[in-house]
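Students often ask why we bother encoding 3D structure as a string. The short answer is that it lets us treat folding as translation between two languages. Here is a chain of 404 residues written in the first language.
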Amino acid sequence: MQNLRPHLIFYSIIAMMGSLFISRGALSASIIVFVSVCFFHTAIKEQLRNFFSTPLLWAMSLLFLLPLLSGLWSDDRQEWLNSLRVKLPLLVLPLAFASPFTFSRDQWRWLASIFLAGVMAGTIWSMFHYVPDMQAVNEGYLQAKTILTPLENDHVRFSWLLAVAILVAGWVWLGSREQRNISWLLLVVMAWLIIFLHILAARTGLLCFYMIVIAAMLWMIVKKTRPLVGAGFLVLVIALPLIAYIILPTFRNKVKYFRYDFEYFKDAHYLPGGNDAIRVISLKAGWHIMNDNAVKGVGFGDIFHETGKWYEANYPQMRQQDKIFPSNEWLIYGTGCGIPGFLIFTFVLLVPFFTRVKSKGRWWLLNGLVATSFLFDIGLEVQFGVFIYSFIVLLSWKWFRFEA
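And here it is in the second language, the structure alphabet:
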């Protein structure tokens, strides 16, 4: 059975990748299988020692343990339990990845290829729903609506996944340039993912993509190598948004809506249904609640309730459907656990930059994308976001420990 274990781990990882695009139930089931297989061996003590001796692993588990601890002062027990249920992978996946399994270079390539194939299939599925009703969808972008996406239409998380997929395709391409057919295929994949990301026009994914491009440009400058390629990246940063605005109606309408919404959110004025205006107001709410409860916060069970009270006091005209959580993961942990929660969350995101891996540049860039996404999104409050963050970071850590 021990000889089968590495194969079971490998295929359970593939199952998690696939189930991400199928359903929440399938994803939960595949996570249970993966965790069970990772603990089904005799060297449990070694695995636990590895967990506690690896800051990346135990630090990530703090993102579950902090909400758990806040149950001591959370009044809404049901909401608190729901938060723990969503965040449970932040504990069990680091424990599972502490298992001393390794893969061959070919197996890592297979996992990267399957991940890219899943994301590509997701973009094709979205286009299948977009093209027949293109005009209506384009007009919807003037009202903060988007194309239907996988992950149960979670376009924010899917856009971030697209940026990661572009990054992964680039990594694999760098190691496959001698194989011309594969190299060209990867370039086509990257080109399509970039085009689709601009069609989707979700700002989280776009911001992360342009971070990748700018980082590549700066790397060329620092290394003083291939100046023409570096200049090409600079042209890309400038030209791509302009071309997208001219050619892609979804991107153009998204920009128009942003300009309209900007007049409200720059002064934190309430705009019913306004995407950015409401987000800015939610940030104000989170900041005030955190500072008013600086020592221990309000507890993860009461974040939404306390945010709603702040809205009632400061924006009594706000519609119920516009009352959202503070739109920043730092503020979520700050409102839930006070200033200590805010600081511990910062510590957790800094730990990867001090983690020893063979491919530091790629690792740092990936974790830079993670931190960027949490500035404008609360991915750790939804199942897909929790899984994508923990799975991508932990799997990449395993990969880069042995692959340069």
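Translate back mentally: Residues 105-130 form the longest helix (26 residues). Keep this in mind for the problem set.
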